[in-house]
Amino acid sequence: MASRRELANAIRALSMDAVQKANSGHPGAPMGMADIAEVLWNDYMRHNPSNPKWPNRDRFVLSNGHGSMLIYSLLHLTGYALPMAELKNFRQLHSKTPGHPEYGYAPGVETTTGPLGQGITNAVGLALAERTLGGQFNRPGHTIVDNYTYVFLGDGCLMEGISHEACSLAGTMKLGKLIAFYDDNNISIDGEVRGEGDSPGWFQDDTPKRFEAYGWHVIPVVDGHDADAVKNAIEEARSVTDKPSLICCQTIIGWGSPNKQGKEECHGAALGDAEVALVRETIGWSHAPFEIPEEIYAGWDAKAAGAQAEAGWQTAFESYRSAHPELAAEFERRVAGELPSDWAEKASAFIAEVDAKAENIASRKASQNALNGFGPLLPELMGGSADLAGSNLTLWSGCKDVNAPGHDGNYVYYGVREFGMSAIMNGIVLYGGFRPYGATFEMFSEYARNALRMAALMKIPVIFVYTHDSIGLGEDGPTHQPVEQTATLRMIPNMQVWRPCDAVESAVCWKAAIEHQDGPSTLIFSRQGLPHISRTPEQIEAISKGGYILKDCAGGHPEAIIMATGSEVDLAVKAAEQLTAQGKKIRVVSLPSTNVFDAQDQAYRDAVLPPSVTRRVAVEAGVTDGWWKYVGSAGKIVGLDRFGESAPAGELFKEFGFTVDNVVKHVESIL
Ligand SMILES: Cc1ncc(C[n+]2csc(CCOP(=O)(O)OP(=O)(O)O)c2C)c(N)n1
Ligand SMILES: [Mg+2]
């Protein structure tokens, strides 16, 4: 039987050889954490390589994603559908082994990691989702949701600010089944993180004390190369159920490399052929690159144990089904990510109700109304706000705090943690069974931005809600007034951005976001009141196309088009009325989602914005850059290419030209 060290050395060999072959990558972390990974995966991880989507599997997150060869080695060795050919193809085009682990490529990769700090934050989301889904579905004698979330992280993750946001919240929430392994190797790219005297380095935190202060259970000193010590630490961590655990593992980066271990040199570069040969000698690994002896495979193979674990769970689930048939069916629906069968019909009925009410309200209020309409249909909703519930209006009548007794809630008080909230939502949706939405002021989407990008990269259906969407928020001033944010959010590939103009469009955009399953959505709402606009049922239907004709001239052959989004649609409508009264033929196009509109076929887009009509004016209280593609070089834009000011909203709209008269003037200038 292979020894633990020999099993761990398989990770070391695969990692250094794959990096060497690619002549690119990070051998240090996998070689340093191999012994820890061996104990965790062989003795504790409950997973089924033949079914990477088994809902009750333990989750593993490599937050120090640069060490991607660690997870690829583990997945290959334990029996996932990740053949050796993929390891040989590390970092090559169309391989399943990209430079950093990417969700949707290698089976068993739970989330995309690499941007440091976000993996641990996703893991907090995974652990919160596990606890909450358990609270909602487990019943006495039937524990069907019950898994651990394990996460590896390095100095870099701990230096990143988001780790504070996430770990502080995890401590407050007492996420006892979250177990983190800190790769305490005193190295990051620039060298030793803990220097001395006049060269203090850049990371001298007392990490154990920091995590104790968060309310974590901390195991402060574990030799990360001593399997027994690691095993004891995992036992201890699992025995503490009311606190997340941090196991601080002292390791040597690049362990086994005689000339490079312990040095930053092996962090992110191939060791070189000569050093690779020396490692083979040093660790006693005589096998050729990418050759794994049968005995080693046998020591790692998790297929039989995994199949057995899942079968045991299936049996338990069938007994749950007998006792609670409706819950079991609902669990299966939720985990499959399917909408309730009556969703489409009830959602449309709600939108018709909103239209009939014809309310003049802020779109943030309309958003809350939509949540009250849709929330009862969707127990999978997991809401939240970064300490702005009363401003973002994210609470609806069915909200219950996730931390309340029973842990069966559906609302997260994230505190002032925009980035943390967003990356936690990514983790929640990745767990399965939930549709998270979370809110802040649109301005602070900036704080969260990379998590939005990661959601888009992973094509996962998180709903980011942003209120206070322009200078229309008024007196809080330019620090809080978005100007360039909507435009830049639209630029994120795979992100559907909505900026509705009234309560009806707000309800439709919520419905669209809920139905958009293969990517994130951003919903942008106003602070200030917006008038109801009347529409035909066909127009209401067309809102979900992202852009549509809201008002047309008689005969349908306009001489000019005014297009707008959100709070500026009203200006466009009134300007068109004024111009129509002067005998002009004007069409108004509402574009609540430019991305969704862009995805319509050419015939539809041309029907809304006929290429022959080149006299076009766009109105949006934000930067103008993105609008030129709609108005063309003959067009005009009423926008805002500067920061706002602190003043009442009405005055600001006048000051910056968002008036009916100014829109009319712009149209007249090109007629
Ligand atoms: C947000 C972010 N900033 C910077 C980087 C680039 N980067 C990758 S690894 C690394 C150093 C990480 O140090 P540590 O976590 O200690 O990793 P180790 O060298 O110990 O493997 C940096 C700066 C990154 N991946 N993500
Ligand atoms: Mg390090």
Structure write-up:
This protein has 671 residues and is an alpha/beta fold. The strands form six sheets. The chain has a six-stranded parallel beta sheet, sandwiched between helices. Helix 20 links the parallel strand 15 and strand 16. Helix 2 (28-44) packs across helix 9 (227-239) and helix 12 crosses helix 13. It starts with a helix and ends with a helix. The model has no long low-confidence stretch (mean pLDDT 98). Bound molecules: thiamine diphosphate and magnesium ion (MG). Residues 28-29, 64, 66, 114-116, 154-157, 160, 183, 185, 187-189, 253, 267 line the site of thiamine diphosphate (TPP).
Described by the principal axes of the CA atoms, the overall outline is elongated
Structural class: alpha/beta
Question: What are the bound molecules?
Answer: thiamine diphosphate, magnesium ion
Task: Summarize model confidence as the mean pLDDT.
Answer: 98
**Radius of gyration in whole Å, from Cα?**
28 Å
* Unreliable spans: none
Determine the strand fraction and express it as a percent band.
Answer: 5-15%
Number of strands: 22
Helix residue percentage: 40-55%
Number of helices: 27
In the sheet with the most strands, the strands line up as 12-11-13-14-16-15
Biggest sheet details = 6 strands, parallel
Termini Cα gap: 85 Å
